[in-house]
Amino acid sequence: MTPEPARRTDQRLEITLLQERSAGTFARVYLAEARGSGGLSRVVAVKVIKEQWSDSAEILSRSRDEARLLSRLQHRNILRVEALAQVDGQPALVMEFVDGVDLRELILGLAERGERIPPRSLYTVLAAAASALAAAYEEIPLTMSGPLRVVHRDIKPSNIMISRQGEVKVLDFGTARFDLTERQASTGAMRFGSLKYMSPERRDGARGDHPSDVYALGLVALEMLLGELLPVLPVGTAEHDALLEDILGRLPDPGLPDARWDDALKQTLRGMVAADPARRLHASQVVPLFRSFADNATGESLEVFASRAMALLGHDPVTARPEEISGSRVFTAATTSSDLPPPATGRPRLSASRTMVPDPAIVDAATPVQVSVTADPIDEAPLGSAGDDSRSAPATLARERPPSPVTAGALPVRAATDPPHPDPDAG
Questions:
Q1: Rounded to whole angstroms, how far apart are CA atoms 239 and 230?
Q2: What single-letter DSSP state applies at residue 54?
Q3: Which domains, and CATH codes, for the chain?
Q4: What is the pLDDT of residues 238-258, one digit of tens each?
Q5: Beta strand pairing call for 10-23 and 329-336
């Protein structure tokens, strides 16, 4: 006789809102302390949908979809979501807190001081971000029969974060497209994403697919290498390619061993930012290329650079305690362990969130208020059944653009005489 699965018991999660860290179009993000019924506490981020969007079925549905998606995606480079709750009747996500800075702030802050991201650190960041996109699109969650084919659709510098310890996190999957049978939101009347980082096909009205994410990451790579933000590239192929070549021609020293390596880097960037999506590399192909560049580049490691950059930009470590902060707000959430993703075991399972572009900490000095919270287990609505075939890859990607056969992490350190050779048709 097969024993029944043990039922997971309710837990009380006391959350103290400490500081408002950022405010975007749709939500505010708070630094918070979460304390469980056993007395254990941890620092978290809480993203609360703004009140003016409380009547928007599109925004609320996307918030729930994001929580359900990210509870199943567990990857070290995707921000983790821990619970779905309500704060004063507004949907809220309880997420992993990352003490660090986003790439936009980092690029601009270094430029003001006449610096750029060191080459070794730069390529490490790009390899990690590409790994997150590849995992979201291709990895199979342990409880599912196929990949979710997640397309982020809003990759940009402010959605890639570097922690004080040199960790890289991709943020904000709230605009993502993915293959589910039980998702609540559809694109509808709203157009999500940042125009500047949209691929030509998306700006022409297409919904965007995996190559669109690679395109956006390629633009981020160019901005990191240049140490400045780029203008919007034209949609027309000839104009687009001409401007791209102009940008590639004025890249500063990329910190690679010789001219052949420099050419390999430019070929990689051309393969990411190609106007034709059929000619773009996959994220899984990009990962080993940037890892190889990082292994052979000059400059500080990401761990060393991140620590120095935080000090350079004036980002002090987060040390505030609830009793030290005026205006902190406490609420209690009734959660179940089904709200939380299980620990990652064996093959990475993927995980992330739509949030946090931290500014220097600003204390929330509002008068303390009573906040009511209700729990909403993420696992209530399954993402799909074992027999669901809606998660199969789009035909153009599955047949015309197979991923690279190179296993992530399997690429050896290359000698200076052997630069990598990006090939969008490899596989």
A1: 15
A2: T
A3: 12-97+319-328 (3.30.200.20), 100-313 (1.10.510.10)
A4: 999 999 999 999 999 999 999
A5: antiparallel
Cα-Cα-Cα-Cα torsion 224, 227, 232, 237, nearest 10 degrees, comes to -60
Query: Checking DSSP bridges between strand 90-96 and strand 81-87, what pairing results, if any?
Result: antiparallel
Annotated catalytic residue within 65, 102, 154, 379? 154
Q: Find tokens 């979460």 and name the residue.
A: 34
Look up 154 and say whether it is catalytic. Answer: yes
CA distances from 266 to 132, 134, 241, 269 (A): 22, 21, 13, 5
Residues written for the chain: 427
Q: How far apart (Å, rounded) are the C-alpha atoms in residues 333 and 335?
A: 6
The DSSP letter of residue 326 is T
Whole-angstrom CA distances from 86 to 16, 44, 126, 364 are 14, 15, 35, 19
Angle, to 10 degrees, between the axis of helix 210-226 and the axis of helix 259-272? 140
For residue 316, count other CB atoms closer than 10 A to its CB. Answer: 11
Model confidence over 40-78: pLDDT tens digits? Answer: 888 999 988 887 766 666 666 666 666 676 677 889 999
